Prior knowledge:
By secondary structure, the chain is α/β, with parallel strands linked by helices. It has helices at residues 19-24, 45-58, 73-80, 101-122, 133-139, 143-160, 176-181, 231-234, 254-259, 280-293, 307-317, 321-327, 342-356, 366-370, 379-392, 418-421, and strands at 13-14, 29-30, 34-38, 63-67, 95-99, 127-131, 163-168, 184-193, 196-206, 215-221, 224-228, 248-249, 264-265, 269-273, 298-302, 330-334, 360-364, 396-401, 424-433, 436-446, 456-461, 464-467, 474-475, 483-484. It contains 16 helices and 24 strands. The strands form 5 sheets. It has a 9-stranded mixed sheet with strand order 5-4-6-7-3-8-9-10-11, sandwiched between helices. It has a 9-stranded mixed sheet with strand order 16-15-17-18-14-19-20-21-22, sandwiched between helices. It has a two-stranded antiparallel sheet with strand order 1-2. The relative contact order is 0.10.
Amino acid sequence: MNRNPPQAAEDSRLSSSTPYLDQILDGGWLRGGLYILTGPPGTGKTTLANQMCFHLAKQGEPAVYVTMLTESHSRLLLHLRTLEFFESDLVGTRVHYVSGVHALKAGGAHGLLELLTQVMRDKAARLLVIDGFTVVRERILAHVELREFLLALSVRASLTACTILLLSSEEGPGADVEHVMADGILSLTTEHVGLKSTRGLEVIKFRGSNNLPGKHTFTIDTHGVSVYPRFEALNPDNSEQVTDSDRRSRWGIAGLDAMCGGGLVTLSSTLLMGSPGGGKTLLGLHFLVEGARHGEGGLYFGFAERRGQLLRKGDCVGLPLRELEASGALRLETRAPVETLPDAMAQELLELVDAHHYRRVVLDGLEPFAREAMDPGRAPRFVAALLNALRDREVTVLLTQQPNELFGPALHSPIRGVDALCDNLLFLRFFEVGGRLHRLISVLKMRDSDNDPYLRELAISARGVEVREGYPTLDALITGQPRPREDPKAVGPDGRPRKSRRVPAKKKTAPARPRGRKPR
Length: 520
């Protein structure tokens, strides 16, 4: 499966009008095939089918939309006018709306088949949509007659290379005949997660195609239907890029670079975990600014703070965010942490990286990015696929995450397993001594690199961010509940144990002889 969506369907394929649905269908619908688009009312069948009709018409290929419902064409078009894909000039010229109600009532299956054959031939249609196939099935009660009707329709579609879409709200045993006869079935659903609803689609069946299995999300807005394949299904392979510990991506903070053995290993992934206010965002901005100064474009993608707040934050500590953003060396993208779709945001992130060739990415807020509307078991797989996709694009990535608790000896990650996926793990936390809060920073893990094992003070002031010496008089800092060290002189101000000073042993000397005359 290609990393990027196909730009155009092959000759044997008919584009679904949405690039990522084409990718799910392995290139689009097969021309001349008969497919079922099924789902409860309101799930988006009509919108998707009309979007396909107008998309095809803009490419010069006619489409016919046959309605079997009581809704008038004028009312249907009134609803479609609010969508961007709609063009009134195409209605009646390349997109033809036809009612099949009278033909079905008057002539039954035979009468409807004659009408459909005629419009396919007269309009040279490349797409025929039958909206309301449930009505057809209710009218043609005999299974044999329905099977013969679908078989005849399928033969005509194949001879004229016209793809047929049957829109039906019927699922389950009652729809067995058409489900057996169809070349493929695409199911649309709406699921509720708490008060939020999420639209999903799944290819139930697709003859002769290597489609992307499983459920995927989609949205409907003024642009029409936008489909977002499940990210880990789209990116199942490990990255082919190999990190080199000789190449470093520096923070631009001397003390922190020293703790990381000269900076983060380029192309590695780092999880920066800490409580709110611990300095995660500021460290991330430092990382991007340092890269931009050395020709590595950087992308900030965050949720907690808006762009204006980030710019003021940079002003306060002397980071030239405004200047670098104006030059295009750095980009600040912020989103509200509500109603997010992980697959949609991952696609957006990769599209930004591909378009601007960013080499450093800070994803500030892993939880709103990866956990929204996602079951806990899926989140690590999703993050692993995202890290692999970014490494393939030669990106050094920094993720931030805050624990579930603010204080206490045990802090838990809201997304379990992510710390094991990342190459490096840095930990920030507050602790209190004498009624004052202090920040500490520690490097818990660096893959393929030496690192400083000592805990350091992280100081943030108007002068910027500094990493200072450790705390020689305190123990158990990493638990957030420090205690006085039993032997504070054993540790130097840099956190390292002092070298012991041994007192040199006195040389043994022979006992002095008593003065006087030697005995005979």
